[in-house]
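Intended use. Records like the one below are meant for learning the mapping from a protein sequence to its folded structure. Do not use them to infer anything beyond what is encoded.
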Amino acid sequence: MTASNPDNLAARLDRVTYLLVAVVVLQLIDVLGLGLFGIGIAALVGLFVTLVSLADVEQSGSRR
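Structure written out for the chain above:
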């Protein structure tokens, strides 16, 4: 990994962060005993957060 490409490093750190969040959410679902219902709720929340963040990126891109 070279120091001349910070965007590549940022993208890798983003992916690692998303994976860590997914593992923590799955562990919480397991500890709380929610099963498939909890996985479904987590998927809906993840979808909602993704759509909101994409809309924010889209809107900030149109301001330029």
